[in-house]
Amino acid sequence: MNRTNRIIFGIAILIFGIGWALDLTGLLHFSLEGWWALFIIIPSLAAVFTTKHKSGPIIGVGIGVLLMLAARGAIAWTDLWKFIICLMAVVYGISILFFRKDGLGIHSADSQTIDDLKMVDQNGRQIRKIRSVFGKQQFEFSGQRFEGADVETSFGFVGLDLRGADLLDGAVIKVECSFGGMEVRVDKDVCVRTAVESAFGSVGGNYTPPADGAKTLYINGVCSFGGIEIK
Fold it and tell me: What's the pTM?
């Protein structure tokens, strides 16, 4: 934990401790309703000051605040998703209008290569592990063997370009996408089959499945408050 993170966490814990003590003594009413939202707000706030990609952390702070307001009855739980969509639209709109690519960092990719990815053996297949939180990662697999991947993205973006890859027939991409996005590009002769459960999310794109694909790629998983695009 760097110095900035220590300061933010230290101040937050200090305020929480003092407020709770004052509430116990009756000197000040300190409501603990929705306190669990701090586990979203504090890390997101720390990321705002310590990461290059700031749009995700800012949205994270906003979502944490909205969750706390809902827990306290200030807004209805049934309307929470509407406020979250409004928040995301405002942040991304501001970033597009007033910042360059290095502003809020929504267009910049993390400096990570295919060789840096962790690989695990699953039933004889080498599965690549990809995790993107508050950032953007893009990988090109041209000329590389691809047997499958486990992708987790929250408040971030992952792009997989499988064009020209040595794709294993029946390879599976397992996805967990929340408040983020993902893009998968494949060759024209690859048939992509999806089984993704979506909640306030979408799976689509301009992909046209071939009549008789040479190979089949499966995309399975969950997508909530985000989107998966296939090209």
Answer: 0.56
